[in-house]
Amino acid sequence: MNYLAIVGTNSDVSTNRTLLQFMQNHFASEAQIDLFEIKDMPAFIEKDELEDAEVDIPVKVQDLLDQISKAKGVIIATPEYDHTIPAVLKSALEWISYTTQTLKDKPVLIVGASHGALGSSRAQAHLRQILDSPELGARMMPSSEFLLGKSQSAFDSSGNLIDAQKVAELDEIFNEFVLFTEITTELLSKRTLKKKTKKFSWQE
Questions:
Q1: Which residues have CB under 8 Å from 87's CB, separation 6+?
Q2: 46-77 burial, b for 16+ CB within 10 Å, e for fewer?
Q3: What CA dihedral angle connects 73, 36, 67 and 204, to 10 degrees?
Q4: CA distance 149 to 124
Q5: Handedness of CA 148, 151, 153, 159 (dihedral sign)
């Protein structure tokens, strides 16, 4: 099982990145988790704002689209800024929505870490709304969220989660996500009405 884990921030130092790195190592025997950084992606800009210039999909954006397409599922780690997701993550999702819509029907697991006690709960709820939009149409595992509060003190010097209860909670959620991925893949393989994939063109 191969997953793409998106670091949903442009911060060079983030406990959300640390959380995904921990998951990458902790679940190495169960799945391959590849981390993707969106911090260097260009900000999304609509065609009308380009003054009819000939513009291709930026290389970094195309890399993200290709890796999502290859992955069985996607894990997104989001911090919480002013009760919502970071602008850089929203911009990345807009690129996906406007171009290939490659998140459609893709199993997605949302996790999040924050310095406060609530662990990005509001941002995760907002992210679910965005991913459920028609242009993205991701398949999110229901009734699941991993909230890591007070994240600055949640890891040891080697990047391991200190709280055994939080590790057990993450184990349970990830194992359910692997099963959810398998069930979703099987369900979609039996769907008789195939959804058309939008063909990207800056000319539209």
A1: 81
A2: eeeeeeeeeeebeebbeebbebbeebbbbbbb
A3: 110
A4: 13
A5: positive
Percentage of the chain exceeding pLDDT 90 = 77
Distance (Å, rounded) from C-alpha 178 to C-alpha 1? 8
CA 180 to chain centre: 16
Per-residue pLDDT tens digits for 7-63: 999 999 999 999 999 999 999 999 999 999 999 999 998 766 544 445 578 999 999
How far, in Å, CA of 153 to CA of 150, rounded? 6
